[in-house]
Design brief:
This protein is α+β, with helices and mostly antiparallel strands. It is globular, with a radius of gyration of 15 Å.
Amino acid sequence: MAKYYVESGTMQLVTDADDDRGAALWAMHLCLEQVLPICPDDPLTPGEKDRRLQQRGCYVLDETIRTSEKGFGRKDAEVHDTGELFAEWNQLMIAMSKLQRQLQPVG
């Protein structure tokens, strides 16, 4: 895994990922996780999420998500379309949900 610098809108994130697209998808996930009930066992209630957002603000993505292995603000960063990443993230969440239902014991 490589270290990636990910930036878009108000978000700047350093994360490990297999590739630049994976790093961008993780940033998308973290942004959406702020407001959506992504996991059934999400540790934060909607009220706790609301308080957290009011205290520190919410990450807001731009039209693109930029990833680089060298640092923030790089002209040679990979550029990912946020809308395309959202569609891919949504497909991944649907697939994970289907897998989770299939793995749950019957009865």
